[in-house]
Hints:
Recoverin, domain 1; two-stranded antiparallel sheet
Amino acid sequence: MCSVFDVICFQIVRRFDINRDGRLQLAEFNSVLESTGLFLDPADALAVFNKFDPEQDGITYQVCSGSVVVVVVVVVVVVV
């Protein structure tokens, strides 16, 4: 059974995965952030992205769904 967070993450990856490889690359991740009105400088965006992409092969739906709360907290900390 999917949680609400799973559904949200699936929709985010599906919407912003421009090349349809099932993973969010850095540019696609930046599009997610910018769609919420969050514009980070490149170094900060890369630092946040790397927290969720340790293998450096893109953020997958599974990684995202396990980290939704962490993503929200990191984004809020970066903004504040």
